[in-house]
């Protein structure tokens, strides 16, 4: 299939915005070339591709943050150059950023009008701004008060405020850059409804996302990028996520997940009884068996991360009893846990996992300094060997030994973090959101690593908000809701609908139990 | 994989080191060249020895501050602490001198070190265990130490006993093979500090805590212990500086060490240590301290700055030195 | 230092012991001065406490109370509190700053309190009944005249000045007036903030810069200590005189001992507070008019009269 034949005629009239053989190079490095695509009114056009495929560059070219080095943009058929983002904005191109760029200390209305304040005779007209903000929010079905402080809002509501802000004024094209990346599963649907409503009003939508299932549900057409080039534009009808992934990676993908082992479940590796983490976890007990991959599902805020932060002594918590390989343990710090053989990979690899400005070797050994350097003096040669070994075993791709952790792609950062925790040779590993924000190829590698760790006789708990990941990887799934374990699934019962049911509803538990009893 | 294309190409330059670390030394070299052009006497052995010797106190204290700052802390109390340690040391030596003679000097040095370590421990404990912002906590102890020295001296001067004066004098005014002792002391302190910061587990952890407290904590590092240790190192450095300082004027007064904290922080920052933590440069700090003292020296040696404008010109030169440093990083 | 604390405790105890009944009959002289934060103010505190002790003992009908304040605003609060809580027949005040203290002192004056102002004048001279001050111009002028005479009217000088204030300006002006007409030449003049350390550094730099320096004048004795140390270290023999000013006891000791480099001293003695307290006490005890202004001269202190200016127990 090639790009030319994939083009589909516009449903009515011409495209609002058209990219014609668009390209971009930084210095001598070409990061995007020969991209040709139409953005049509009343249509949702998705852009997919792996990290580094050129999605963000394309989006920045279309919204005036970057100037193309090749090709041109056409608006309503006439060539146009966007000198600045505000220029693009003024002709009706709105961009909803991936990160939430709002001032937390200011109110919703103040954020929406930041830089575009309404003033009368130099005096801010707060009332006019509040009213306009309220109208703007109502238009996208968001009910937060314009007076609310952004810092007090949920992430989902902040995202909506950000969208309201982007949609202020006239807009003919709205570009969404991974708008659901920061949202939990149940927060996604309302957002997709808003996007569909915009489409109904004849707005042209460009939708960039990693979540292929969303793309499948939402998009009319899909453009696939790979390594800075266009693979093609396809009708979404009949395009499965599997097919999309294959197009993105350039080879066929049988499955993201390694085939499940028939685990020979051994002795209990980690037993937690009656865990309480004030404000987060209420009387949770669980058992992880040797050689098992145990999934922990639930919404953000269900208390999954906090349970283990409490276990590691990172926040106040009390436990009825904790046993590691049968021995009672009590950890006051992650160091004690590591010495006992319990490793924890944080969900927040940039904030809590790696020193982004440091080189790789110090990052690798930071949690195992006493192990790698038996004396107070640093053994730099030994450390370099450790890095070589980690790079080989975990397939960490880096440009140079002197690279800083922050320069690695998300997937390689995650592998480095995994290598870092594994330096302490844990027998029980807790991995919190193992693949958040990383691309498909790295995801599948990390799943394979996790499985090989278990094959070596270790045991693993995987905390994830991606239900498919847990279903594909785990032997058993516990679903947490509001600080309690709300259900346990294994075998064929591990389905998205069951996980979602337990994660969101407490009555679901009884019903499921009932069904089990009858079935 | 997608790695190479993912990061913007110029990122590599941003991270490259070498020239960036050379910044303070380039600034120092430029200053020496300018100094020579302004007044050839500037490069006379005597003047250089004087100025570098003078910079020893700030350099030694600033080396300690390099640990505190790179671990993400701040210590505003160092100037007052220096005065306080000086006072304690002199009073102690004067008390024991009649019975032990000049043995009072090494005993006094030990007392100074113990006092410095205790002061550092106090600062560190307030900051970590008390969970008080370092700025506020050390602003508090700054006032406390300053008031204590004022109380000890009755607002006036406590001078070292005459019987000890001459025996102790060489610690500031003496030299070994022509190199003044304070310079040797600060070089020794810098060597040890550089070793600790760059080549030991403690140094690694110290910088990690400053770079990102959460990462350090999740990596099993006791942030409290690392921070307190940094403040203790700072206290010990202040004590070493005080030990070299006492023989210079032989007295402690309420104005001893006044505003040294600002000079110390300036030296550390000129030297390339990040004020927000996570990056420490011991030799840069030493260069920074020498730069500050050279600037003051040049102000006097040159004839074209009005006495009323000296502070303004110093400010401009410090900013230019920082700019040279910043540009050499690109 | 303990001793002073004991005195303070003693004064407090004495005040408590006398009680309100007898206090009502006594004439109360309140003394408000800056807290000791450097040598000279420490001297002021010492002499004020000494005067209080002596007068309380010598004149049963008079009670002197001393209050120190670390800043101008604290001093305002202190005198307001004193006047609000007790009868105050006289206030002897060495103001932190003229601007901030003028109005509060005027308010107290309006209640009929006798006002003695020391050293720094208030903005409105009509407020004071008695003014006692040293002569900063004379400090500079007399030192200059001594140098002109001893050096035969010619030579190279370097000068260290303090912190930009009226006191500093007056001393420098007096000095410049004093060398006018002679061939004494000021090679350099820089600020060293009345601080020994900074004076030490500045003197080192002067010595590096000028191959021939005949005399040094530091306009305060704290700075002179640093200057002397720098000269000693350099081993230079060209400097004939190194003079200071203020009357610090270490320097007076040198003068008494006949030091060659520092043979004279000019007083700006912190004991002026004592003079002022005694004069105020005289107003109540002596039945003689003491209203007016008293400018203490700054005569040269030499070996012969040094004893008069020497207070071995004073911290300054």
TrEMBL record, chain A:
Pfam families: ABC_tran. This is Ribose transport system ATP-binding protein. It is a peripheral membrane protein. Gene3D superfamilies: P-loop containing nucleotide triphosphate hydrolases. Keywords: ATP-binding, Cell membrane, Membrane, Nucleotide-binding, Repeat, Sugar transport, Translocase, Transport. Belongs to the ABC transporter superfamily. It is found in: Cell membrane. Residues 17-252, 265-507 form the ABC transporter domain. The keyword Oxidoreductase does not apply.
UniProtKB/TrEMBL annotation, chain B:
PANTHER family: ABC TRANSPORTER PERMEASE PROTEIN YPHD-RELATED-RELATED, RIBOSE IMPORT PERMEASE PROTEIN RBSC. Pfam families: BPD_transp_2 (PF02653). It is a multi-pass membrane protein. GO terms for molecular function: transmembrane transporter activity. Keywords: Cell membrane, Membrane, Transmembrane, Transmembrane helix. GO terms for cellular component: plasma membrane. InterPro entries: ABC_BtuC-like, ABC_transp_permease. This is Ribose transport system permease protein. Coiled coil: none annotated. Its main location: membrane. It comes from Ancylobacter rudongensis. The keyword Phosphoprotein does not apply. It is found in: Cell membrane. The chain crosses the membrane at residues 19-39, 51-69, 76-97, 103-122, 172-198, 228-251, 257-275, 282-302, 308-324. It comes from the Bacteria.
From TrEMBL, chain C:
GO terms for molecular function: carbohydrate binding. GO terms for cellular component: cell envelope. InterPro entries: Peripla_BP_I, SBP_2_dom. It holds the Pfam family Peripla_BP_4. Keywords: Signal. It is found in: Cell envelope. Residues 1-23 form the signal peptide. Residues 29-286 form the Periplasmic binding protein domain. Belongs to the bacterial solute-binding protein 2 family. This is Ribose transport system substrate-binding protein. It comes from Ancylobacter rudongensis.
